[in-house]
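Fig. S4 source data, part A: sequence.
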Amino acid sequence: MSKQDEPVRPEARLPKGLFDTPANELSATADMLATIRGVFENYGFEPLDTPAIEYTEALGKFLPDQDRPNEGVFSFKDDDEQWLSLRYDLTAPLARYVAENYQTLPKPFRRYQVGPVWRNEKPGPGRFRQFTQFDADTVGAPSVAADAELCMLAADTLEALGVPRGQYVVKVNSRKILDGVLDAADVSPAKRLTVLRAIDKLDRLGIEGVQSLLGKGRRDDSGDFTKGAELKAEQIAPILKMIEPKQFSATDLNAALAGVGGDGLKELAEIGALVANAGYEDRIKVDPSVVRGLEYYTGPCSKPS
């Protein structure tokens, strides 16, 4: 056989943003997930599993960009010409499951779920196209006590995983406060998603980076340019004032109830009182820079830090 007739062998290479998992990491991950399950089940949450693939339309506003409905997710068409997508997170499948089974579900419905999710986005250091999420959600509980409980759940989970008290904090905020500030700054609805994305990058980019994204935009180290919200200086100022790194106690919140986002402040004050009564006040703090869920959260949201 001549060299020209030899079969072409594909190069052994891993797609960007994906990773292989060796045995030792699989074992460590299994132990970690078992610990998390134990804490969640002690709180009364039950497991649920949903398919990795959903109808793209079912993801709805959970898609990363409303103006690019088929980007940000890995999508394909089936034999019936229906668009299907790998799940972007575990929240959209939960919403679909609850909508289909609402009449038969217990109220409140408390479920946890663990599994891989996929995002068709530019990979980078610490940013993958596939990763594991572990969610706990309460559906059908109108009181913010459910939100306080989830904050305490997060704190107990971190400690069960070996994170010492004092080396973490669960930060909580309310979208109602954010909306109140954006109303006061006269930010149009069309720009709010871009503004919220900018605020969500505070931990990574700092105040100056967020300020650029609220304005004309920002160029990253690779040379890529991200267009900003193009707000005016007088609109940017109150937003930056709100997200300056701070931590408020329940007393601080009660003193500020007459301010913008009053309903949100009242909810956070109630959460603060609940966690204080349960002895978690040193582990759960209010932070106005926390932005989670972007468009689909309407009340309190939190993240460990």
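Fig. S4 source data, part B ends here. The longest helix spans residues 23-42.
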